[in-house]
Amino acid sequence: MKIKTKLLLSYAAIAFAATLLVSVPVVRTQIAQLEKDIEINAGTMLDAGKKSIQTFFATPATIVKAMGPYTLSPAFNQEDAQRDFEIVVKDYPSLSCLYWTDSVAISDGGKFYSSDGWIPDPDYNKFGQEMVRHRRKDLRFDYDRALCGRRHRKACQHGRLFGR
Q1: In whole angstroms, what is the distance from residue 113 CA to residue 70 CA?
Q2: Phi/psi at 41 (nearest 5 deg)?
Q3: CA 5, CA 151: separation in Å to the nearest integer?
Q4: Are 111 and 124 contacting, i.e. CB atoms less than 8 angstroms apart?
Q5: pLDDT tens-digit map of 54-109
Q6: pTM of the model
Q7: Which phi and psi angles does 114 have, rounded to 5°?
């Protein structure tokens, strides 16, 4: 090999080594900074999404909590319920429908009231739906604890939503 070729190869090797020596730490620093920025932005976006979801559900949760005692009163009937549910839905455009059903299947004499007047078929059984069966089995949702609070439940001797 000629000296000129050897000299060019040695210059190229020195330039390549110098480039690597400088660029590897810079690239690592940039990658670390990008990962940090992504983590911060993702956290900010998740927090904003969480707040948005909480805000979205705040109104329905308030309505459910306010309607709970009303649905347990002896005066609760289909005509009044439908009228009152319609008023609530009109006042809150983010709601498309409001309904109430008790812990007994319709086929067994249970009741179902809806803001839009929909009446389920006599053989409608919400307890046959996978979602409801799963909730009943795994979560053991307590209507009174969710809507009325511990003191009110003790004072009024309410039963549980799913008969537990």
Answers
A1: 13
A2: -65, -40
A3: 92
A4: no
A5: 888 888 788 878 877 777 777 778 888 888 888 888 888 878 888 888 777 777 87
A6: 0.47
A7: -140, 150
